[in-house]
């Protein structure tokens, strides 16, 4: 079956919409919203988006081999977004492990992946992307330093083109990733890593562990170098901060 793209006006969240649909979903199905009334990030945090100033959408993808087939998915999506931005003339987008896109050290976009399915069964993934197109930093406080595409592409930045390029990249990369996994993308991801070889702090629960960011492995885990050697962190419960 073919994937389809729908553009909705006002909904809670494009992730929720794709999760709760009664329709049969095909890989690559995409929902875009003009306005989300309850856009969210990880850990129940909010995603804020002024009307018309941001790109908020989600794509459905099934991994037949379940959770293990998805390892590194949020990193792959970051690679897809950076490639798409390059196609739009933005060369400077970088990544922050595990799920953010940065532009000149500030947050440009975030990725929220939600999964349905039992361990050992196929995993139905909802890949949510929020990207600032025109979200002036002096008008909106989103809780951390942020930037938008109009900073580099000017006020006439074409939101539809950006959406089309990202969807195009995801439709290209997801089938390949499903077959070959994340390994072929490690190097490209590491080239795009804004924090490469820098001292960072990893927050997990109440703990804060400082170390040098030494990139990622094929499962998408962060490799942190501390006095004890290299420690691996998986995406779920962990946040990375500049030192
Ligand atoms: P991490 O993902 O590393 O844990 P994070 O602070 O980016 O850290 P997320 O839950 O991934 O946390 O994303 C939600 C966060 O995104 C919110 O806490 C808020 O600070 C930020 N945020 C909300 N809206 C925007 C926006 N339009 N642009 C940039 N950042 C935003
Ligand atoms: C993050 O920075 O943690 C992720 C933010 C993800 C926001 C997008 S907007 C489209 C989709 N729908 C949601 O409710 N969230 C994601």
UniProtKB/TrEMBL annotation:
Under which EC number(s) is this enzyme classified?
6.3.4.15
The organism is: Alteromonas oceani
Which reactions appear under catalytic activity for this entry?
biotin + L-lysyl-[protein] + ATP = N(6)-biotinyl-L-lysyl-[protein] + AMP + diphosphate + H(+)
Annotated function = Acts both as a biotin--[acetyl-CoA-carboxylase] ligase and a biotin-operon repressor. In the presence of ATP, BirA activates biotin to form the BirA-biotinyl-5'-adenylate (BirA-bio-5'-AMP or holoBirA) complex. HoloBirA can either transfer the biotinyl moiety to the biotin carboxyl carrier protein (BCCP) subunit of acetyl-CoA carboxylase, or bind to the biotin operator site and inhibit transcription of the operon.
Q: Which family does it belong to?
A: Belongs to the biotin--protein ligase family.
Give the binding site residues for biotin. 13-15, 36, 40-42, 107
Molecular-function annotations in GO: biotin--[biotin carboxyl-carrier protein] ligase activity
Alphabetically ordered keywords of this record: ATP-binding, Biotin, DNA-binding, Ligase, Nucleotide-binding, Repressor, Transcription, Transcription regulation
The chain positions of domain BPL/LPL catalytic read 1-178
Enzymatic class: ligase
Instruction: State the superkingdom.
Output: Bacteria
What is the recorded name of this protein? Answer: Bifunctional ligase/repressor BirA
